[in-house]
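Database export, one record per block. Field names are fixed; values are copied verbatim from the stored entry.
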Amino acid sequence: MNPLPFQSRTASFAEALANVVIGFLLALLIQRLAYPLFGIETSLQVDSLIALLFTMVSLLRSWCLRRLFVLIERRHWLAEQKRLASLERRLATGRLG
């Protein structure tokens, strides 16, 4: 049997964190460039707080989705392993039909 594919919660968090840090920097840059186009005047501090709020929500969302997909992948993998084990038993006993 193949080993269970696995990503730890810590690795999931690290992946989500890297994704969100880049997202934070992009959001901050886009805010600084886009707000003036819409007549919105803010300070870098205000932009940073707004971006931070959305970043924290994004980080939580990203981590939760990653864990959900890991769970789904595990369930599919386990179901496939059970199906293969059953097939192996039937082959070994000659009861394939």
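Remark 1: The radius of gyration is 23 Å.
Remark 2: Residues 79 and 85 are 10 Å apart (CA to CA).
End of record.
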